[in-house]
Design a protein that fits this description.
CATH class of the largest domain: Alpha Beta
CATH superfamily of the largest domain: FAD/NAD(P)-binding domain
Strand order of the largest sheet: 10-9-8-11-22
Number of strands: 22
Largest sheet: 5 strands, parallel
CATH architecture of the largest domain: 3-Layer(bba) Sandwich
Helix content: 25-40%
Shape: globular
Length: 602
Amino acid sequence: ARTQSLFFWQDRMEAVSDRVLYSTDDGSFGHHGFATQLLEELINDGESIDEVIAIGPVPHMRAVANVCKRHGIPVVVSLNPIMVDGTGMCGGCRVTVNGETQYACVDGPEFDGALVDFEELMTRQGAYKDQERRAVAGHAQGEECRLEQQLAEKAPLDFSEVNQPLNEKQAIAEAGRCLLCKKPLCVTGCPVEIDIPGFIKAVQEGEFFNAATILKDKNNLPAICGRVCPQENQCEKTCVLGRKDRPVSIGKLERFVADWEAAHEAVEPVIAEPTGHKVAVIGCGPGGLTCAGDLAKLGYDVTIFEAFHDTGGVLRYGIPEFRLPKHIVDREVGYVQSLLGVKIRLNMVIGKVLTIEELFEDGYEAVFIAVGAGAPAFLGIPGENLVGVFSANELLTRVNLMKAYRQDYDTPVIVGRHVAVIGAGNVAMDAARVSLRLGAERVMIVYRRSDAEIPARAEEVENARHEGVEFHLLTNPVRILGDEHDRVVGMECIKMKLGEPDDSGRRRPLPIEGSEFVFDCDMMIPALGNKANPLLTHNTKGLELNKWGNVVVNPETGATNLPGVYAGGDIVTGSATVIEAMGAGKQAARAIDAYLSEQRGP
């Protein structure tokens, strides 16, 4: 420590140690000098040291690791100081170990200190500190902080909800277009099995409360689905009107009904008598909330265990405010929690704080794993660990959880002037549009296929283009370029052409030899989907996983190979949609009810 007064737990350390040596920078206690100097003296005096464990600030651990490497002594460093959310989602704990990208929250925090790239780590940490300094500079000097004004002057757009709702007259008119088919194909396209003709007929008649009752019989999160569900690929895709005209706007009607209910009269759920059985749901995202809500309606005592400090999962941290306002998430979670009686425990990283085995020991009789896929995917090209490379996962998580979208918060996420987003899915569109709102002068979508293959919702692509996002199609990055300070300054790309269709049904992109070129950017955001976060799965004995680390389940029930353990959503399928996760939650709730009903007998 710098001085004696900063020591703590001396008695505890001495109680469990054969020998304790102290070092202070000012010589007020023990050795006068740095701890690394004391370590050098011990080594030079012939002290036999089998292994060194370094715990402390990153510069301290780097110095200790350097000493140990010089003397060939194994050294373990604990990278707790760079951990933020405990799950790896925010990306703050990203570190290169033996040439590979690792996350201290997930893969550590203990690593072989000889293999950690401390120079890169400290450069990245310095970038975060620069943002912090800019945010608090005015406050630290006792002066007015002008950051809010500066951001407001710089940011060309705000985070207000973009897509506007139908009014009552528009809703009745749109519902009137529905043919109320006797064999409605739209219902077969809905993963949560909503009685679509039923609720639309109620809207036609102006019976909005009845419409809400029908909606909430099957869907615990209608205001969310009405905003972010890709209806054009689900229920609206099968609408017969779409064969010759545009389909009925089922999503907009769902949003209208859900918002009407919130503003007028809440639907009281029908809840069965208590069964006396406890179920644990891991993850408070769309799949977990759906499963928990459906089981609560059936009379089960349900507790959701959420790793983060707030509810909603990807609904809160992964979707921007302008697409899904946080107060809508609060409202929908409040329904599941208050009216359905589901208990929610926050800051519970299952796999670290508790294991699934311990949940069963605590009296839970079934477990549903709905943790999503939180580990970002990268391109695997040179330069991805330069300062200025953020996965879309990291960017959106930081913006949402730090409330960087609010001008009254001194927690900005500083973006580059010229931002390149790699990919063209919904998350890529979100990252691009967020970057514009945070003040980027130029934002580019870089996608290796053509316009026809873009997987994002047409509505989101149209909005992105309208807001000024550039689209560089048939273009693929091959290398990220950095300056002498390891900061992004550009990207080398190659032009592509389309070949035969691949397994996804889209034409395979092929590089055009000799077409390499470079364009300038100072921030690069891969938006390539997510991989399974191993925090829970690797700490659950015997749980069967596939080669990608996803949980293997029975596709009809969501049952894993472990008795009483079910899983659904992105942890099973990889990156998918909110509504698909909800469908998996509904399927699992039905299967868990059947399983526990069989357990308790007639």
